[in-house]
User: Fold this.
Amino acid sequence: MPKSQKKKFPIIILSAVTFLVAAIGGYFCFSFFVSAPSNSSITKVEDDGEESGTVDASMKYSGYVTFLSEENLITLNFINPKESKKTLSLEIIANIDGEDIVLAKTGKIAPGYKIDSVKYDLDKKIEKGNYKGSFVVHFYDGEKEEIVNSKIGINVYVK
Assistant:
């Protein structure tokens, strides 16, 4: 091998290893901060141009979910705005015949992310109709410790 190629070879190897380490590190960082189960569609929120400062905990949501029973899919609109300091997760509950049934649980949703859908994993068949329900929102301090939860009334439409 000519002398000039011998000098370039370690640089190329070092660059490739650096790139690989950065890519793997980025993947693990993303996985750590947004740990959604594969049954959820958690995506980054597009910048809406609003500046509201930083708040301890914030959320934006629609007051209903739609359960598409043929597809075992629950659609919703829930955003953890980028201004929020807290990561959160959701339980989606429907009150059916006086019994609260957990339809789905999401993974953790970091600030700046939203969830559009989650799979229904229960074997229980739910009749089509409209039900009262709730979001149980679990807030976390850091990634591990749950600090508080909150219950929000919603409507559950089963189609």
Q: What stands out?
A: The longest strand covers residues 145-158. DSSP finds one helix and nine strands in the chain. Residues 45 and 113 are 5 Å apart (CA to CA).
